[in-house]
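Build the 3D complex.
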Amino acid sequence: MKAICNREKLRDALAVVNNVVPAKSTKPILENICLVAMDNALEIVGTDLECAVRYRIEDVQVDEPGPVVVPARVTLDFVRDLSGETVTLSTSEQNCFISSGEDTCELVTMDPEEFPVISRFGSEDTIPMQGGTFRRLVDRTAFAAAREAGRYAMHGVLTEIDNGMLKMVATDGRRLALAEAPIDARHAPAKPAIVPTKCMNLFCRVIADPLDQVQLHFAENQVGLKTKNAEIFGRLIDGEFPRYQAVIPKESKNLVEVDTQTLIQKLRLVANVTGVEARAVRLRIKKGEIELFGQSVGRGEARARLDADFKGDTAEIAFNPDYVLDGLKNCEELQVRLEFNEKTSPGKFRLGENYIYIVMPITIDA
Amino acid sequence: MNSKTPTILHVDMDSFYASIEIRDDPSLAGRPVCVGGPSDQRGVIAAASYKAREYGVRSAMPTAEARRLCPDLVLLPPDFDRYTAVSREIMTIFRQYTPLVEPLSLDEAFLDVAGSERLFGDASAIGRQIKREILRRTGLVASVGVAPSKFLAKLASDLSKPDGFKEIQAHEVRELLDPLSVSKIYGVGPRTALRLEALGVRTIGDLARRDKAEVAREFGATGVWIHDLAHGIDTRRVIPRREEKSHGMERTFPTDVSDREELRLSLLSFCEEVAFGLRDKGLRGRTVTLKARYGDFTTVTRTKTLDHATNLGPRIYSVARELFEKLPPGPLRLLGVQLSGLSDVRVPVQESLFGDGGPGTNAPGGSSYDARLKLERATESVDKLRRKFGDRAVVPASLLGRENLAGRDGTDGRVELDGGE
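Done.
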């Protein structure tokens, strides 16, 4: 194989593909990437068997087509630190040479036959949408997904298409984000699928321009996304997503509206005194105002107040301020609305059009 | 004089609280920083940076006095959450080298590294590694003393402060101790020092030369103690501190029990008791361990960790019961339940959306927390009655009429278990 391509394009492509390559794997081949030179293009493929990326660089001068498998991390590091405008890739029996100007390195290769076969994007049943729409829904929800702890089914974003709406839901069992956006409704509804958070973030990374069209495809056990340069496939999480509809309050006794930025500012203020282990800010809601209160044994206590639109008598609820702030950061409205029934029942924040965020409160024993 | 090799380390952080404050706010560097209570509330200094000590400021000094000595004093309120977090980091480093760690406070501990030498080098090498690792991981400076005993190790770190490292070998003890003031001996306070001085004893060497019986006559048990220390004799061992890590109850039955229903009822009563014990101590536990011993003395344990810590009997029982039903069949000689992963009830609890069970177990509308709240309120009232009228005043209906049966040793065979690590 021999190919010459633009260094920056190669570097960017390697950086994207490296996101899925595991640093350490029981299957050493997965710590590698497969580069394939073909008619004026270079394809770079990487996978951890959960998620796979194929990234295509165009306008490559291919002198000799063919594949080569090289260590992912070293290749990226070397290409990143090169300085020339173009990079030449070539192979011998055993090695792969990467050179630019006077600088060169010789990498050990592995047999391309051993590299996992990654499927290609078909043209059937794909759902076209604007990249920006997809990315915005991920941004609005993925932060709420479980990370280390929690049930496996919560380590992803529930994605479904229904009635011309693309809907995403993520939860870690303590808070939940739900967002929807209209998409081209001519396509058949897709049944709910749990897409791993890592895969979702990777999808967003390859959406270079929000105005670009992307193609989404759901198969039995995988989801694929195609952009201008990239094809990504992720294995869906096989599990039962919590029945989230049941925990979204339908009617609420208490309904309060406040200025979003003021609430963010005051929450941060009071959160400063709360400890690492006991992060709780209490909201006491009265007619026309909210009082915030936070304390910790070693630090002391803090209070703040802000104007609020509230008609009821008084109500009280406490939240982990980090959870609330995570949501408020994405709030698209000047006024945020909070609804809840009891101090032990879920708080529902309305963060925008078709965008709600549920946070379970913190209960504090006297 | 014994010829023991040094294996005891005393690690003491230099001006710990103040150093953390300076580390986290570089603008404080080089300024006289103190952590303590405000002077208008009769606060005292908890820690002073070395710069502040140049002005004569000392820990335990009233803040008002410190202010007089050093008008430019930067006084910060203590942030124990943060100090505790750093302390944990440091203790974790210690435990990488030896399990024998005896913390004296947040910033000070004794370590016994006998037995760790083959892995990490001799005590002195370990001391240096620990000092380096503390600096690397926390950015803070420690003073380390290495010696054959606790007293000498602490003395060594004291003598070398700040940023010190000192090893005392058995053969140099005499030479080192002799010129030091007797007040350096742990247990010799200002008053004892005065009394010793009246006897013509000023230095440790003076004390060591006295007859032990004479010192004992004068000072009693303290006399024996300080005379030994003056000779560098200190046999105290490094004792890792035990915190209460678990709370449980088990019972050895008078005769092996095979009736499952009978065992379930026993289990229920243990769970109720354990829960009550936890509530009494203001604790909650997260991990339920069931222990069963069969007639042939084979013992099995089964464990499950909850999403949330609890101290409610029915909650514990539902988990213990689940574990119980998975036990291999056979008559039991002993049954017990234990809660670990204990936490203070005053720690606020983050509620969860979907309950502890698997998917779909959450009731619509999320009534699981409402149910829990009701149970908590009821439990509170029951506890009041139990405290007033005794443990058996209120019991679950299924346990009514169950009188205690004598066990194999004449007691009812119940053992309450409070465990350390």
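The first helix of chain B runs from residue 16 to 24.
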